[in-house]
Amino acid sequence: MNTLTPAQIAEAIATLLADVAAQPTTEVAVPTDTGSVEVPRDLIIEVVAARAAEAKVKAAKERSEAALKAFLGDATVATVEGVEVFSFAPGVRVGIDTKALKAERPEVAAEFERTTDVRPLLAKPKALASLFGVA
């Protein structure tokens, strides 16, 4: 059963709206509509609230890690009471610039391209806001 207050629901939906607006998708939707099914309102509230909580935790993680990195400055190890708890050593990551590869050598890019079926659970922010009376 739903244990969230209307204010918490509104806050969760507002967080979801902001999160959806901030993250463009790179997935290509493949229409395979097999209809719709009525789901319990409480289940939707639970999913929206969980996503909002996840967004808050992610933001808190990013803020705290930025603060730790700023505190470390040029140091490569963080210690607490003499115990090494984090390392922040520089390194190198090698990757492939797929955009440039597709532009310069499209035949090579196509040779190694792979397609993956996806079925993302995408929120409908405007419908959620309307359903739960959030502006």
Largest sheet: 2 strands, antiparallel
Q: Report how far the terminal alpha carbons are from each other.
A: 25 Å
Please report which band the strand proportion falls in: under 5%, 5-15%, 15-25%, 25-35%, 35-45% or over 45%.
Answer: 5-15%
Total strands: the figure is: 2
**Element-by-element helix/strand order:** HHEEHHH
Gyration radius from CA atoms, angstroms: 22 Å
Helix content: 40-55%
Can you give keywords for this protein?
mainly alpha; two-stranded antiparallel ribbon; 52% helix; flat; 135 residues; 5 helices
What does this structure look like?
By secondary structure, this protein is mainly α. It has a domain of 79 residues. 52% of the residues lie in helices and 7% in strands. It has five helices and two strands. The protein has a two-stranded antiparallel sheet with strand order 1-2. A hairpin with a 2-residue loop joins strand 1 and strand 2. The radius of gyration is 22 Å and the shape is flat. The two termini are 25 Å apart. 6% of the residues are buried. The mean pLDDT is 86.
